[in-house]
Structure formats: structure tokens, C-alpha cells
Specification:
heterodimer; A: about 160 residues; alpha+beta; four-stranded mixed sheet; four-stranded antiparallel sheet; 4 helices; B: about 80 residues; five-stranded mixed sheet; 3 helices; 5 strands; about 25% helix; globular
């Protein structure tokens, strides 16, 4: 159960190998890697080209928020291994931003917990994106789609 | 008490953080917001009524009615956009 917030890139393969090494209870590992995309698609059409972005975060609060999400995922699903690596600083199109990996004896729990963590970290971890576009710098606004995605997990929690 | 600002709020206020000593009648985060608005035009704009921003007290997300108490750090920020 590891959370890291770092400026440097990560090696996805090496991270996943290290995460599962020696744990033979893991039957499925679900992985999400977030990348900086070149085209900014919103409402179904291409808006501005994004050449790079700068991710700002709130040191101290970010780590705590991610650890709490991870703990929540472990309460909801039977997990054997979790890893969240989130980068900050200036990132260019094609660069990796975030790695979320979840290992469980069974694939359903791994898939669900991975999706849960990605949905929650988009709306509950203190990160902000400043995009560099040909028209100048722009702070990314919150997406209603992201909020909706995060809320469906709250519904599930209430139903349990 | 230390007050921190993030993302566009930092640019609008003009500083990333500042040390402030609010008067005794500032109890809640909402009280602090109202008091901070009087510090400069940038503060008034960033913390304007109806502006979409959140707050944290000692690095935990809170609502505006939370009492600040003996907290050492209050932060204001736009909605999160990580991932």
C-alpha cells in the first residue's frame, strides 16, 4: 500500500514488478496510467492544442488525501497490493502523469478498486492543472463528468 | 496563522502564502474569508462571494462553517483537477 508524489517520471513496468513481487495471492492486477494528451477534447470537439501542462499540488495534504483514498479502497475491496504514483511540475504531451495499480485475488475487485481510485483522485486530491496552449496559459476547470464519476462511488457506499 | 492560496487564486491574490492575525471575531473559515476580502483588491476578487473555491484547515478539506480554532494553516483553492 504505497503512495508517492514526485516530480520525476516513473517506470511503469518496474513499478508493477516491484508491486507484485513475492505476493502469490494476487490473481489480477488492474492498472491505470494517465498521460498528458496533446488534443484537448471537450464536449466532443477539439478545443485548444495543449503543448504542456504544469501540475501544482499542496504538499502534505496531497499525500494524506491519497493515503486516505487507498485506505478506503482497502476497506471496500479485498486488495493485496495498491500503488498510486502522481507526478507534479511541468509535463509535456505524451508524458505520464499518474499510475494507479491495484492487485487482488480476483479481477472484479481489482478493476473496481482501480476505477474508484482514479475517480476519487481526480476530485479529492489537491492537484491543479495549468495548460500551455497557443492562446496562452489556462487553468483547467473542474469537469462535471469527473464529479459525476466520483459521486457514483458515494452512492455505492451508502447502499452497502 | 498562515494562509495559503493555490492555482489561479495564488495569482489573483498575488502571494502564495501570508501570515495573518485575524481579529477575535473571526471564528469560522467563512469569517476568515470575509475578513481577508478587505486586505486587497486581489483578495476581494479571489475570495469573492459566489466564486468556486474550497478550503482546508491544517491540510484537511473543510466547509465554510468549520471553526478554525487553534489551526496553524488555512488554505484556499479552486476545485481539484488532478489525475
Amino acid at each position: 500500500m504505497t503512495v508517492r508524489v514526485q516530480e520525476s517520471d516513473f517506470d511503469t513496468g518496474a513499478e508493477l514488478d516491484a508491486l507484485t513481487k513475492g505476493n502469490k495471492k494476487i490473481g489480477g492486477l488492474a492498472v491505470f496510467v494517465g498521460l498528458v494528451r496533446e488534443l484537448h477534447v471537450r464536449e466532443g470537439y477539439h478545443r485548444d492544442r495543449v503543448d504542456a501542462l504544469t501540475l501544482e499540488h499542496y504538499p502534505g495534504m496531497t499525500e494524506t488525501a491519497l493515503q486516505e483514498m487507498e485506505a478506503e479502497a482497502c476497506r471496500r475491496w479485498p486488495l493485496e497490493a495498491t500503488l498510486i504514483v502522481h507526478r507534479y511540475g511541468r509535463l509535456e504531451a505524451g508524458d505520464r502523469i499518474v499510475l494507479v495499480a491495484v492487485g487482488s485475488p480476483h479481477r472484479e475487485a481489482a478493476f473496481e478498486a482501480c476505477e474508484f481510485l482514479v475517480d476519487w483522485l481526480k476530485t479529492k486530491a489537491p492537484f491543479w492543472k495549468l495548460e500551455e496552449t497557443p492562446a496562452g496559459d489556462k487553468w483547467v476547470g473542474a469537469h462535471e463528468g469527473d464529479n459525476k464519476a466520483a459521486r457514483r462511488w458515494e452512492k455505492k457506499q451508502n447502499e452497502n | 496563522m498562515k494562509v495559503k492560496y493555490f492555482a489561479w487564486m495564488k495569482r489573483t491574490v498575488g502571494v502564495a502564502e501570508e501570515e495573518v492575525t485575524p481579529p477575535a471575531d473571526v471564528h469560522t473559515v467563512g469569517d476568515l474569508v470575509a475578513w481577508l476580502r478587505g486586505r486587497s483588491g486581489g483578495h476581494a476578487e479571489a475570495l469573492a462571494e459566489g466564486a468556486a473555491f474550497g478550503a482546508a484547515v491544517d491540510k484537511r478539506t473543510v466547509t465554510m462553517d468549520v471553526v478554525i480554532g487553534n489551526a496553524s494553516e488555512v488554505a484556499f483553492f479552486p476545485p481539484f483537477t488532478g489525475g
